[in-house]
Write a structure and sequence with these properties.
This protein has 405 residues and is an alpha+beta fold. The protein folds into six domains: 77 residues, no CATH class; 34 residues, no CATH class; 76 residues, no CATH class; 34 residues, no CATH class; 38 residues, no CATH class; 34 residues, no CATH class.
């Protein structure tokens, strides 16, 4: 505990050095900084910058830059940095825009080319008892209940939630939302019961997650992951989605979409009431040259998971020529190596049509060879011809018959 040490102690700023805890005078923060390691650029939320050690920067609520950076080379106010999203995608965004888009800003000066964002997913339980893996933010957005971080559906027991189910004759019973819909009823939101639900309430326009409009009770709308409009509305006079935001698409373009439809299209919502007029979208996909020579537009992470080679962000397959896949190359020493045709010829080898060195296509195929004295040997065709022999159609002498022509 604090104080359980010999000698006097002065409480003040707490700093970290090589994993140990040290105390310094409250009136001398620079003394802490000098003892806490190498300084680097430290960016603060107001856009200001100070050259501080990483531990002292964190204690002051700043974001430490990479080692070797300084305030002379880092613009904390506007310089984009890598922004990691819960689904593992990465975008180079200004930190404040990254936070607005529900991302995690990385160190100042970092880029998506130099780091890999790990997806954050967990089990997501839905009112009907079904389970799927989503990030907590996405799970909440589509009407689910996220489990503990990194939990899986295999270890999570999702129980269907019974809700008040209203029927056309204004009667009510309690069952899961899926059972209610199957019975032709309108399920209310989770937590509802027939004791507190009036089934004669008026329906309103309901914008479902796929931006389709359906007239439903407000509770039934929410139970299906939808957003109910105001009282007295109907789909005849309502355009869905009710709320849109700037949606940055994988190719760097921007579209106004609802949050769910944006994510379904592979985009990144930029925050409530954001507009494409002011949003800065950067591409998150690029051409990925796969090992078989094919090309697919993927994120760098997806590309590397498929053992591909990603191009620069924004370069797509219709603009990139992927090299042909390597083939078996029979080298002069009769060994096999996977090389391009150009590299194979340059190294003195002979390109082979085989796509693999297993089985080895460069091992000479032996043939039965009848020599002039009517003896038989098993050698490659070229050696048989060089010895003046006659190549047989069979591979072993046991099946060959050497006789005078």
């Amino acid at each position: 505990m604090i104080g359980a040490r010999r000698g006097p102690i002065t409480l003040g700023f707490l700093s970290l050095l090589c994993g140990t805890v040290r105390f310094a005078e409250a009136g001398d923060p620079q003394a802490i900084n000098r003892g806490a390691g190498t300084s680097a650029a430290c960016c603060f939320s107001d856009g200001s910058c100070s050259d501080l050690a990483a531990a002292f920067c964190l204690l002051q609520g700043g974001r430490p830059g990479d080692s070797g950076t300084s305030c002379a080379t880092v613009d904390c106010g506007s310089q984009p940095a890598a922004c990691c999203f819960a689904d593992g995608q990465c975008g180079n965004l200004q930190p404040e825009i990254c936070l607005t888009a529900l991302g995690r800003p990385q160190r100042a000066g970092s880029t998506c080319d130099t780091l890999t964002c790990a997806p954050i997913v967990s089990a997501c339980c839905f009112p009907d008892g079904e389970c799927a893996h989503f990030s907590p933010v996405t799970c909440y957005g589509i009407g689910g209940r996220p489990g503990t971080l990194h939990s899986t559906c295999a270890s999570t027991n999702c129980v269907a939630v019974e809700v008040a189910c209203c029927y056309a004759d204004n009667t009510c019973d309690e069952r899961s939302a899926a059972e209610c819909l199957a019975a032709g009823g309108s399920p209310n939101e989770p937590g509802s019961s027939c004791g507190i639900t009036t089934c004669s309430d008026s329906q309103v326009a309901c914008c479902l997650p796929d931006d389709v409009c359906k007239d439903a009770l407000p509770g039934a709308c929410r139970a299906q992951g939808g957003q109910p409009a105001g009282a007295g509305t109907s789909c005849q006079f309502t355009t869905c989605p009710l709320r849109t935001s700037a949606c940055c698409m994988p190719d760097g373009t921007c579209e106004q979409k609802g949050r769910r439809s944006c994510r379904d299209a592979g985009g990144r919502p930029q925050g409530f009431q954001s507009s494409c007029d002011t949003a800065t979208c950067e591409p998150t996909q690029s051409a990925c040259c796969l090992s078989d020579g094919a090309c697919s537009d993927l994120t760098p992470l997806e590309c590397r998971l498929m053992n591909g080679q990603p191009s620069d962000l924004g370069d797509f397959c219709d603009e990139v020529s992927c090299p042909p896949p390597p083939t078996a190359c029979c080298l002069p020493d009769q060994t096999c190596a996977l090389q391009s045709s150009v590299d194979c010829t340059t190294s003195g080898g002979t390109p082979n049509k085989a796509a693999s060195c297993t089985p080895d296509p460069c091992v000479p195929q032996l043939k039965a060879c009848c020599l002039g004295d009517l003896t038989c040997i098993e050698v490659p065709e070229s050696q048989c011809t060089a010895k003046g022999g006659i190549v047989q159609s069979v591979s072993t002498c046991a099946k060959a018959t050497c006789s005078t022509p």
